[in-house]
Amino acid sequence: MSTPPSSPAPMSYKNTPNRSVSVRGVTFAYRRLGPDNGVPLILLNHLSAVLDNWDPRVVNGLAARRPVITFDNRGVGASGGSTPDTIEAMARDTVLFIRALGYDRVDLLGLSMGGFIAQVIAAEEPGLVRKLILAGTGPAGGPGIDKVTSLTIKDTTKAALTRKDPKQYLFFTDTAGGRRAARAFLDRLKERTNDRDKAISLSSFRAQLKAIHHWGRRAPADLSLIHQPVLVANGESDRMVPSVNTVDLAARLPQGQLEPLYPDAGHGGIFQYHARFVPRALEFLEP
Question: Which parts of the sequence belong to the AB hydrolase-1 domain (predicted)?
């Protein structure tokens, strides 16, 4: 692993400075926080997400003991270039980004679409990845994944009509507890007030939707190729990537470990249950 940046890394995501690195002529925006030493944990984001869509309770909790790096995919937020329309191309970009930072051994936390990307990297670059955490995600060809586009459009339209954030519908259950968790999560996303990232463009959003749709229509992947230890987590009522995919992943991965599904929680289960998820993730990531 390369020598980390010489300046001390910040410990709070709300004031972590934006950085950038050039990868084959394309600028990738990222943030790094946590201790200087240790295997870095790379966070791979969900559909339409930018740097400011990571729950600071999750990032800060993980960064208390691990170097944590978040970044914008190519063409997303503050990163340059055009957004790829396949998961495999996004995975190649991620590998190039990691190596541009000088790392040759990392852990991955992939959420939703980020979990698709993490699976490809783990299979194709086994020497690069030590451990994986897959949250709110599923294998290629998993049931319901090809419905993400229609569900996203439906709930985004509903959110616009009700003046709500789409994540309230897409990430959380429509129960009293789910609505409380959604409000708390959305409030946490507003904690950073300076140097915020810009929203994803419509063209990049469409490219990501196309990539997810194709992933959902693919033939099932051979998950036996992923030999690394994998922690799999989700809410019990995920509408975007149905929770049956989480159970399937844990069963088919040679070293899969299933975190008991979070009750009354959906796609954003690790955010809703951050107080439970973070300690479990840190325990799993121990050498």
Answer: 40-271
